[in-house]
Structures are given as structure tokens and as C-alpha cells.
Write a structure and sequence with these properties.
The complex is a heterodimer of chains A (289) and B (834). Chain A is α+β, with helices and mostly antiparallel strands and 289 residues long. Chain A is built from 6 helices and 14 strands. The longest helix of chain A is centred in the middle third of the chain and has 15 residues, at 140-154. The mean pLDDT of chain A is 92. The longest helix of chain B has 32 residues, at 495-526. Mean pLDDT of chain B is 87; it is low at 473-491 and 823-834. Chain B has 834 residues and is α+β, with helices and mostly antiparallel strands. Chain B is elongated. In chain B, the strands form 3 sheets. In chain B, strands 1, 2, 3, 13, 14, 15, 16 and 17 form an 8-stranded mixed beta sheet that branches. The chains are: A alpha+beta (289), B alpha+beta (834). Chains A and B meet through strand 1, strand 3, strand 4, strand 13 and strand 14 of A and strand 6, helix 9 and strand 18 of B. Strand 13 of chain A pairs antiparallel with strand 18 of chain B.
Chain lengths: 289, 834
């Protein structure tokens, strides 16, 4: 499946910003199942310094530094991506053996994702919630899908009730939130069991209602979860907000331990007064392809 | 535990003979005698109090730093062995950091468990991002180790200090004060000097500058940092600037210091700030400056040590150092660690749980956490600790309880052997690692000693290294030294420092003006039967004091002796306005410590200390002599202020801050005299009372120290225009307005271009002041005309304040505080997504 992504962030400042520094995680990460046909970021003003590199997790990052006063700042990221996630395996080992492997010498880079992180620490509330799905000797993918479905069913999607700093224990109590909350919650739950889990940042395609052209800018950034199934099977991506295993509807920007590692736009400004941000995201099948 | 051999004595061998390298000092100690030693110990303690050095114990109340008069002595041979061993450890730690922040093979191969890296808050992920080819290769430039010597005579490392190698300045201060206060012990003993090490280190830091461009600075968290003293001293010893995050700004990937002259490039930063707080862009909750890590990766700035180097201080890592040394250096450790086990390994956990009392339990990744000594816990608490460890074994490391060597300390009852921990300092000179021939030893309580803890009371010791008699070649020949580069620091004054000098000037002047008002007031309120004329004076002076904010509205002088005393003394009591003024001056003096010469700082702190002592000791309001005390105190404050002003004129400041100090004083004096004159000329509603205006002018002259001048010129005839001329327009009156304005103009001319608008504004103020006097002179009734001046005087006052405000904005304006942008918006509902 070939997609065209356009993500526009527009900052309007109350008074001119004198100096600004931004880190962008806005270009999709190249992967065996995600080819990047094209990808670019255009900033207005373009700034005095730009650096592109890979971050600690191998994601594509851009640094932008602006040192002239500016009253607004627009970042447009546009890419064309060919996506075909592999089908999940039919047979998977018992989840306990994955915990053991994660603590052993063969875990490799996956080991990093079993440790607490600021926004997805393991806490008793999420661990107990996960334990219901992770019964003794259950194949890991079965248990993961069950947990994924339970989050989808038992939690209400509702924006505006949480912020990015709402702790997972709070989300457990409220039983509502947005995709970041559900992803953090699931990552936290899996870490509590000793399983490596990572936070994925990206986009999901929105199916237009029949007979209608879909509204521009109705979509936003999305988040879901990567779960480790051992050194042979690797990672599987699960979307607890929609209760599905990721297959062809997602485009991945990057992964990290939690949102803090891969937030699409993060920045520090000097001056600026009150600021106002508008974001629009369009993810459409690419008609040319 | 109990079958441990007795600790080794540093001074005395097993046959009760004084070891050869201690004999010189031992002889001197013996001839000095116990009483003299005890007296010197006290003098030493006082010397540190006067310098305002507080202990570097983390998380505890400020404790005075103490130095034992008896040094710890190392023979040349011993020192050489330690230098070799610690240099190897420094090489090893540098290689470990390079690997962890680079290819990561040590974790991949299992040589370091992932828990000690990925589960370690000191692991800074942004530091793994590859830099340019110009980015610094070396991670570690300065290193310190805490050591103890076991009963077997072997020095072992308790803790590696790879982050900032704190304590170097304390070691230098110990040496300086010891040689001043106990000179006798230095007389018949040759010891290695510390100075060459500092010079080599300073040169090595400077040599790190890419292409030799840009300055070197010590980055400090500022005067709220508990180690601020060390930062100040170290910057001075190394002849480098002391900067705070807010002084730095980054443009185009290059770090600059904001100075009065403009932006000055900085290319080497000696980091004295927590590494995880270096860059708000990539490390959360950091003071900044934003983009510092990007500059580091670009290779335009060297950060010493690397921001992520605290990682190697993790206590659990010690367990793996021998293996890593063999793996990456192909060597065995020369100076080992005190035996340590990481409890994330099941077998280790079982070993430690079998004999918990033989171990010290530490957090595996947090080197600053307090080690716990199970043998000192109750059975319940011990079980609790065991349960905590079993629940999360990977979070803990166990170190075998040490039996440290002892060295004599001068205690109240005579010499007493106390357990010793030794901190040694190393620096990379560009080619190799060198140890400072000295260090910082600390005497421990026995409980802290077995726990391998740093002391909870801060009794430290100077450390001496004896020269090697047989190997003179160890010294670098004088011919090899490179010519010293010429260094100039003037003009590079950070804007923040200039701002602080300006406010120090203003606050000091405010304090002085308040003291002057009080000096005029006190005799008038203490006379047994005051005349109506004097009562009027008291009313006017009270109005001036209230306007200056140094007399509270409820304090009055006509309700009996006790109430009067209270009104006079309240200002000096806790939370009283005079006391607060003094505190402001003291606070600014502390912030400017790095910019004041030692002499000025000593006089400042000593006088401030004496003044606040005198305030504390003021008698109760009921004491008949209470006001007399206040009167003496007032005179003391005037003397203090005069002394500081005199010093400032001569030798106060390094790097040009005096100008702003003077400017602040002038502005404040102009402000105060206009404010006072306005109060003194203010009239109650109704026709002008000539007598009242005259009384006001009399007081104004008195407050300006101008009574004698006036009498000399005009005898006893009081007229408004000549009095106002003396106060406002006479350029020769050092307490008058015109004099202040001329001084302001001269100062501004030094820092501005020809024809600057600021200078023009001061000229305008001068013309305005003259015009006021001329108006009164022309008026048919001078007294009535003077009474109408309150309004124009207030206008002139705000005009001068506006000039000061413009100066402040032009020269001092700090960059606004950096703030994080709220990141992406919350995602909306996903319609139709299944």
C-alpha cells in the first residue's frame, strides 16, 4: 500500500520569538516493511542551522535552529511511503519464555525496552490489568492480542480529558483517554510483566465514509505499541486504540521508550509570549502509485 | 566481621615505630605540643568560616569545613604506584564511556549488564547520537577516586568520580590555609607542590579549543549550588571565566558568552553542572543553553567531562571493571575496587543474602545514594532490606565491608587515630594522565568507615606527597615548558555580572542613605524635652525614612520611651528593614564572589558578619541604653559603606565591574536625595509656612553633609535658592545632585560611543536641575517657590530612573528564559478506524 503523508504544524506567537531550537521526528523511518519513496521537511522561516541524523533508537531526526525574530513558524513534512507489514506468526511460544529471553544474552537491543521510562513506568495497576490476559503458558501473541482488545473494549476514547503528562495509573482509574494514553498504558503493563515494549509514533489512515470525500486535516498524530516476541520472531505492532494488529493502515515515524523519545515536534523558544499551535495531518493512498 | 585484622596505621608500623616518611612531621608535631596543635586546629576552623566555605556533603545542612592540622603523608613510591593505578582506571573509564556512547559492544557482548546502562538514569540517550568528525573523542579529562587502604596495605577504590571530580578546590584551600596557620610542619619537610598540576590542567583545557579559537569557562549552576565556593576558586586557580547557563547563547551551532562587549565565543566548558541538565532541547528540565549538545556534536565546543560521564560512577559497575579491563585494555587492574557484587546475578544474590552483615548495600546505579550497613540495622530492618533487595535485585550492588587504615588527627583529647578515605585527582594533559601530588583525605567516624561512606562531619586533611629523592628526572625540565600565552580578561564581563555590580552599588548606597537618615533622627528623639522645632524635624525625617522604605508605618516616636526604642530598634531586628537591606548587600556580595578580589571579599564578609552579629545582640526595647546601641550600629554601617566605597575606588574588581558598581551608587544617591528633598519640602494644605520650608532645607543640607559649606558661604542666613543650589546644582558638592549626574555622564562615556543618547539624557537632567534652582532664585518669594518644587523634583527623579532603566536594558538584558513549546496537539477521534 502506498501512502502520501502531509503533516503541517503552525505556531503563532503572541510576540516575536528571538531564538528557537526544535527537534523533529517527522520523517518516516525506513524499515524492511516500510520503504520511503520520498520524504522532506520544509520550515518557514527555514532557520540558520539544520542538522539531520539518526537518534539513539535509529529514528530519523531533524534539528532546526532559528536565531532571527519570528512571529510564526510553519513546519511542513511530506513523504510518500510504501507499507506492507509482515503477517503476524500463527504459532508463538509461551509468554514466560519471552520474559526469560528478554533477560538473557540473546535479547540484544530489545533489552532496553523492558526498563521503566518516565512516561511508561511499570506500576502495579497496569501489571495487574495485564495479568488477566497473561495466564500461565499462554502463547505470547494470543495474550498480547487479548490485552490489546481489552484495552480497546474497556477504555473509552475521549480527547481533552488527559494531557501528555497524565500518569498511566490515572488513565487506569479513569478508563478513558487518547491513543498516547492507551499506548503508554500497554507499554507499562508489558514492562511490568518483564516483556520489552516500545512506543510507536506515526499515523493511521482514515477510511472515508462511503460516497464522501474525506475532510482535509481531520487526522492527527497516532501512537501504538511494539511488543517483543523473542529473538526469532522479533516485534509485533498492536494498536490498542483500535484493537487491531497493525497491518496496512499505519505509517511509522519512529519508536522509543515512550512519547518523550519520539514526539513529532519538540522545541525550546526564547521570548514569544502566548503561543498557538494548529496541526493538520493528511494520510491518503497515493493515487500516482 | 569480628575476625577482621586490625586496621593499618598510616603513621606507625606494626612494631610501634614511626614510618620513615612520617618522621619529619612527627618530630614537628611533638615539639609543637598538644595545646598548640589544638589552638591551630581552632585557627584553621576559623579561617574556613571566614572564607565562607561550607561542606560539600550532599543533602545535609551546611556544615563548616574543617581541616585537621596533621596532613596525611604519602611516600613518593606510594604515590607513583597510585598514579599508575588510577591512570589505568581513568583510561579504562574513558574507554567504557566511549563504548557505551558509541558502538555499545560492551552491553551487546554481555560485559556490562543492560540494567546498568539502559536502566540507569545517568545514561543520556542523546549522547549516543553520532557527531561530526570534529566532535571530541575523549570523554574523560578529569577524574577522581575515593580510596581506602585495607589491613593488607593495599589501596582499593571505593568510588570512581568520573562526573566532575569534585573537591579539587577544597584540597587547594586545605594546603593554602595549613601552610599559613601551621607553617612549622612545612619547615623541615620537602613536599611536592600542587601548583604545577593546576597549571598543566589549565593548559590542557585551553589546548582542547578547536583551532585554538574561543575561550575556556567553568559552567556553574550559580551561587545557589552547594559547591559554588569550589566553582569560584577553581575558575580562579585555572584562570578561566565562571559562567552560568543564562550567560551562554548558541548561534549557528557555536556557543557564545554574552558580555558587555557583545558575544564572545566559548569553545571549552569545564562542566560543574549535572550532565543531565545541560540542554533543555534534548534533556528535559535543563537550564540550558538550548542546542548545547548539538554544538558539542558539531565539535565547536568541548564539554569537560562529557555530559554522560556520571554513568561510570554507578556502584554496580565496579563488579565488572576487572573483566572489562582485560577485554578492552588487555590488562589487569593495578588498583582494584573494593570487592563488589552486582545482585542482578542470582548466584551473587544468594552469596550476599547468606551473610548480609559482611556487606554494604548500595543502589546499583545511583552513586550518590547512601550505602546501607546491614550490621547496624535491627533484625526487622535487616529483613526489610533483604526483602527490598530480593524484590528488585538488579537495582542493588553489595560491597564487602572495608577495614580502612587510620591516621592521627588532632582531637580535643590529643592525637587520635581515625579511619581515612583518600580522594585523589587526575587530569589528562593531552598525552597522558597525571595525578595531583596531593589530594583530599577525610577522617571518618567508625560507622561511616565500615560502610565506605563519605564522612558526615567534615573533618578533612591535607595530603602530602614526598618528593622522590632518587629520581629527579620525574620533574619535567624547565626547558620543555611552552611559553605562556598572554591572557587578558578585561572587558569580557558577563552581562549578568555587570547587572549584579550595578545592584550592589544601589543597595549599598541605599543602606548608607538609610543610615544617614537614622543618624540625623536618633539624637532628636532621645533628647529629654524636645522643642516644637525638633518635633517637626522628627516628623520630616520619619517621612523620609518611610518614603525610603526603612521605617514601618506603625513605628512612631512620641508614645513613651519603650515605644520609641522599639521604633528605633525594629529596623535592625529580624525582618526589620535595615536588616533586610544588609541581607541584600550580603546576597549580592556572595553572587559576585568570583569577581571580587580576595581582600575585598574578606573585608566585605567580615564586616557583614560583624554587623549582623551586632544586630543580633541588640538589647531589648526596655533597656535604657537601647538607642545608644542603635546609634553605634548606625555609625558602623556608615563606616562599612565608606570602607567599601574606598576599596572599590582602588582595587575592588576584576574585569571592569567597578564602573557599574559606581554607576549604581550614583543613580541611587541621586534618587535618594531627590526623594528626600521632595519629602522635606512637602507642605500641608493651606498657605505656605515659611518656617517649615526653612526647617526642611536645613535638614536637607544636614543630610547632604553640606551645613558647614553653606555656613562658610552664606553665614547663618537661610535662603532657599543658595541652599538648593548647593544641593542640586553645585558640581563640586560630592553629596549633591549635579556631582552624581556628572559622574554618571563620565561613566557612560566610557562604555558608549561619541554622542550617545544616554549621555545626552544625563546632560538634560543636569540642565533641568539647574533650571529648578534658577526659577527659585528669580521668584519674589524664594521659600514659597521652593515649596512648589515637590512635583518637579519627582519628575526629575523619574527621569533619572528612566536613564538607569535604559542603561540596564542596553547593557544587562539577559536573554529571556527558555521555555519548552507544548508539543503536538492531542489526537482527535479516529472516525471509522476499526
Amino acid at each position: 500500500m502506498r501512502y502520501r503523508v502531509r503533516h503541517v504544524s503552525r505556531y503563532e506567537y503572541g510576540s516575536p520569538v528571538e531564538l528557537a531550537a526544535h527537534i523533529l521526528h517527522l520523517r518516516p523511518r525506513p524499515l524492511p516493511w516500510q520503504q520511503i519513496v520520498s520524504g522532506e521537511i520544509v520550515a518557514e522561516p527555514s532557520g540558520s542551522r539544520r542538522r539531520d541524523a539518526e537518534d539513539h533508537f535509529g529514528n530519523v531526526v531533524t534539528w532546526l535552529f532559528l536565531d532571527r525574530p519570528h512571529a510564526d513558524f510553519i513546519i511542513t513534512a511530506e513523504s510518500v511511503v510504501e507499507v506492507s507489514y509482515p503477517l503476524p506468526p500463527k504459532v508463538t511460544p509461551a509468554w514466560e519464555s519471552i520474559v526469560e529471553a528478554a533477560h538473557g544474552p540473546d535479547a540484544g537491543p530489545a533489552a532496553e525496552f523492558r526498563f521503566d521510562s518516565p512516561m511508561a513506568p511499570s506500576v502495579a495497576e497496569t501489571r495487574d490489568f495485564a495479568a488477566i490476559s497473561f495466564v500461565k503458558d499462554r502463547p505470547v501473541l494470543d495474550a498480547l492480542c487479548d490485552l490489546n482488545r481489552r484495552i480497546y473494549k474497556e477504555f473509552r476514547f475521549r480527547s481533552g480529558v488527559t494531557t501528555i503528562s497524565t500518569p498511566v495509573s490515572q488513565v487506569m482509574k479513569r478508563r478513558e483517554g487518547v491513543c498516547q494514553d492507551f499506548s503508554h498504558l500497554m507499554v507499562s503493563a508489558l514492562r511490568g510483566l518483564g516483556l520489552p515494549a516500545r512506543y510507536n509514533s506515526g499515523y493511521i489512515r482514515t477510511k472515508p465514509p462511503p460516497g464522501q470525500k474525506r475532510r482535509q486535516g481531520s487526522d492527527q498524530s497516532h501512537a501504538w505499541v511494539g511488543a517483543w516476541m523473542g529473538p526469532e520472531l522479533g516485534w509485533v505492532d498492536l494498536d490498542p486504540t483500535n484493537g487491531i494488529v497493525v497491518h496496512e493502515e499505519h505509517v511509522l515515524l519512529g519508536w522509543g521508550r515512550d512519547y518523550g523519545d519520539v514526539s513529532p515536534v519538540q522545541g525550546v523558544i526564547l521570548g514569544g509570549g502566548a503561543n498557538h499551535l494548529t496541526v493538520s495531518v493528511d494520510l491518503e493512498p497515493d493515487e500516482v502509485g | 566481621m569480628t575476625d577482621n585484622p586490625p586496621p593499618l596505621d598510616e603513621m606507625v608500623d606494626g612494631d610501634s615505630h614511626v614510618r620513615p616518611h612520617w618522621r619529619g612531621v612527627f618530630g614537628t608535631l611533638f615539639s609543637l605540643g598538644h595545646d598548640t596543635l589544638a589552638e591551630r586546629a581552632q585557627l584553621l576552623e576559623r579561617a574556613f568560616v571566614e572564607e565562607g566555605i561550607t561542606s560539600m556533603l550532599p543533602g545535609e545542612q551546611q556544615v563548616n569545613w574543617r581541616c585537621d592540622p596533621i596532613p596525611l603523608i604519602l611516600s613518593a613510591e606510594e604515590f607513583a604506584a597510585l598514579e599508575t593505578g588510577l591512570a589505568q582506571r581513568a583510561r579504562l573509564i574513558d574507554a567504557i564511556l566511549a563504548d557505551i556512547y558509541g558502538p555499545g559492544t560492551l552491553v551487546k557482548s554481555g560485559a556490562i549488564p543492560p540494567d546498568l546502562v539502559y536502566g540507569n538514569p545517568a545514561f543520556l540517550r542523546p549522547c549516543t547520537i553520532a557527531g561530526s568528525d570534529e566532535a571530541p573523542v575523549r570523554h574523560l579529562h578529569v577524574y577522581a577516586a575515593d580510596l581506602m587502604r585495607g589491613a593488607d596495605g593495599i589501596w582499593r577504590v571505593l568510588a570512581d568520580r568520573s562526573d566532575q571530580a569534585r573537591g579539587l578546590a577544597y584540597a587547594l584551600e586545605n594546603r593554602r590555609n595549613l601552610s599559613r596557620i601551621v607553617p612549622e610542619i612545612f619547615q623541615n619537610q620537602q613536599i611536592e607542590p600542587l601548583r604545577p598540576f593546576m597549571e598543566t590542567t589549565a593548559e590542557a583545557l585551553r589546548a582542547l579549543a578547536p583551532d585554538g579559537e574561543g575561550g575556556t569557562a567553568l559552567l556553574s549552576g550559580g551561587h545557589s549550588d552547594p559547591l559554588w565556593f569550589e566553582h569560584v576558586l577553581l575558575a580562579r586557580e585555572l584562570s578561566i571565566g565562571l559562567v552560568e547557563p543564562g550567560d551562554l547563547t548558541i548561534r549557528g551551532g557555536i556557543v557564545y558568552l554574552k558580555t558587555l562587549r557583545g558575544l564572545e565565543r566559548i569553545s571549552v566548558l569545564l562542566r560543574r553542572q549535572v550532565g543531565s541538565r545541560m540542554d533543555p532541547l534534548e534533556l528535559s528540565h535543563s537550564p540550558g543553553p538550548p542546542g548545547l549538545l548539538d554544538a558539542m556534536r558539531a565539535g565547536t565546543v568541548h564539554i569537560v567531562n562529557h555530559p554522560g560521564s556520571a554513568l561510570a560512577e554507578s556502584p554496580g559497575l565496579a563488579a565488572f571493571l576487572p573483566g572489562i579491563a582485560r577485554k578492552i585494555l588487555g590488562e589487569d587492574l593495578i588498583t582494584p575496587s573494593q570487592a563488589t557484587l552486582w545482585l542482578g546475578d542470582g548466584a551473587n544474590l544468594r552469596t550476599v543474602l547468606r551473610d548480609l552483615e559482611g556487606w554494604v548495600i548500595q543502589h546499583a546505579t545511583d552513586g550518590s545514594s547512601v550505602p546501607v550497613l546491614p550490621t547496624h540495622l535491627t533484625a526487622d530492618k535487616r529483613a526489610e532490606l533483604a526483602a527490598k533487595v530480593v524484590a528488585k535485585p538488579a537495582d542493588y550492588a553489595a560491597m564487602m565491608a572495608p577495614t580502612p587504615s587510620v591516621a592521627p588527627c588532632a582531637m580535643e583529647g590529643g592525637l587520635e587515630p581515625r579511619p581515612i578515605v583518600l580522594r585523589m585527582f587526575l587530569a589528562h594533559d593531552g598525552t597522558t594522565w597525571r595525578a595531583m601530588p596531593g589530594g583530599l583525605a577525610r577522617a571518618l567516624s567508625h560507622e561511616d568507615a565500615i560502610a565506605g561512606r563519605l564522612p558526615r562531619d567534615a573533618l578533612s586533611k591535607d595530603v602530602w606527597v614526598l618528593p622522590d629523592e632518587f629520581a629527579a628526572t620525574r620533574f619535567v625540565p624547565a626547558m620543555d615548558s611552552r611559553p605562556l600565552a598572554i591572557r587578558r580578561t578585561a572587558g569580557d564581563l558577563p552581562s549578568r555580572v555587570a547587572d549584579n555590580f550595578y545592584w550592589l552599588g544601589r543597595y549599598l548606597e541605599r543602606l548608607e542613605e538609610a543610615a544617614r537618615l537614622r543618624r540625623a533622627l536618633i539624637p532628636r528623639v532621645t533628647r529629654p524635652s524636645a522643642s516644637p522645632h525638633e518635633r517637626a524635624d522628627v516628623e520630616l525625617l520619619s517621612a523620609c525614612l518611610r518614603a525610603a522604605g526603612v521605617l514601618r508605618a506603625e513605628d512612631t516616636f512620641d508614645h513613651g520611651t519603650v515605644a520609641r526604642n522599639a521604633a528605633v530598634l525594629n529596623a535592625f531586628r529580624v525582618d526589620g528593614p535595615m536588616r533586610r537591606q544588609l541581607a541584600r548587600v550580603a546576597n549580592l556580595a556572595a553572587q559576585l564572589r568570583d569577581r571580587l578580589t580576595g581582600e575585598v571579599h574578606t573585608i566585605l564578609t567580615r564586616s557583614l558578619h560583624n554587623l549582623s552579629e551586632a544586630m543580633r545582640k541588640l538589647p531589648a526595647d526596655t533597656d535604657p541604653r537601647a538607642v545608644e546601641h542603635a546609634s553605634v550600629l548606625t555609625t558602623d554601617i556608615l563606616q562599612f559603606s565608606a570602607a567599601i566605597a574606598g576599596l572599590a575606588a582602588e582595587n575592588m574588581v576584576r574585569g571592569g565591574g567597578r564602573l557599574f558598581f559606581d554607576f549604581g551608587r550614583r543613580v541611587q544617591r541621586a534618587h535618594a536625595l531627590l526623594e528626600q528633598l521632595g519629602q522635606l519640602l512637602a507642605q500641608p494644605p493651606g498657605p505656605v509656612q515659611t518656617g517649615r520650608v526653612e526647617a526642611g532645607l536645613q535638614l536637607a543640607l544636614e543630610l547632604r553633609d553640606s551645613v558647614i559649606t553653606y555656613r562658610a558661604r552664606y553665614l547663618a542666613v537661610m535662603q532657599a535658592a543658595p541652599a538648593l543650589d548647593l544641593i542640586l546644582a553645585d558640581e563640586g558638592n560630592p553629596r549633591g545632585l549635579a556631582f552624581q549626574l556628572l559622574a554618571m555622564r563620565d561613566l557612560l562615556r566610557q562604555i558608549t560611543e561619541e554622542g550617545d543618547s544616554l549621555v545626552a539624557s544625563v546632560d538634560q537632567a543636569l540642565r533641568d536641575a539647574r533650571a529648578l534652582v534658577a526659577d527659585v532664585l528669580r521668584a519674589p518669594n524664594q521659600m514659597a517657590a521652593a515649596a512648589r518644587l515637590t512635583e518637579p523634583l519627582a519628575e526629575l527623579e523619574s527621569f533619572i530612573e528612566m536613564i538607569a532603566e535604559r542603561v540596564s536594558r542596553r547593557f544587562f538584558t539577559l536573554l529571556p528564559v527558555a521555555r519548552s513549546l507544548t508539543t503536538d496537539a492531542e489526537p482527535a477521534e479516529l472516525p471509522g478506524a476499526a
